[in-house]
Amino acid sequence: MRALIERLSAVEGLEHVLTRFVDTCARPYNGSIFENNESPYTLECDMRAVAYFGVQGDITDVLPRIRAADVAAWGPHDAEAHDLPHAAGTVPYALDYHHDRGRYSDGTLMPAPTLEGPGLQIDWDRPDLPLPNRIEEPAPCPSVGSTIYHRCSTIPKSPMSVAAARARYGTVLTLSFGGWESSAYNYFTVPRRK
Asked: I need a surface site. Which of 10, 47, 106, 137 has the fewest CB within 10 A?
């Protein structure tokens, strides 16, 4: 996660604002008394992170540089690793979305232009487009609850707020890690004894 955040931080036009890491280990959910959904594990550990960046200049100038930084293979590709034309989740689609102001030629709305990769997503402020988006402040660190191990950290310790970053740069962008396709999902497990 840190290596990919550093790679994105090196992209011209992006300034790292803060990163929130959450690392949790817990007993898996095995369903209700009406479900037989027993996990093969007695312990599962999962990491998630969201890195926030200020965008200097226009997002349509920065998106091609994000693609060139080779952080991930954004969106679906053909057999030769080229972006599928007009496929949501790719940089060309995101550029088309901004160029066409979020509407197809017949006037219907285009899906949101987030960049999608295995276990990764990039999203950004789009307040003036038909499917508006405004990156929110990070949620407070979650309480420990029923977890066995829980760590939540913010880097830097006293970061600029998202509102201050938006006031300074105009647009805020996030890189989110986690979920089923992420290598940090169930990065550590303890098998159930038979």
From this structure: 106
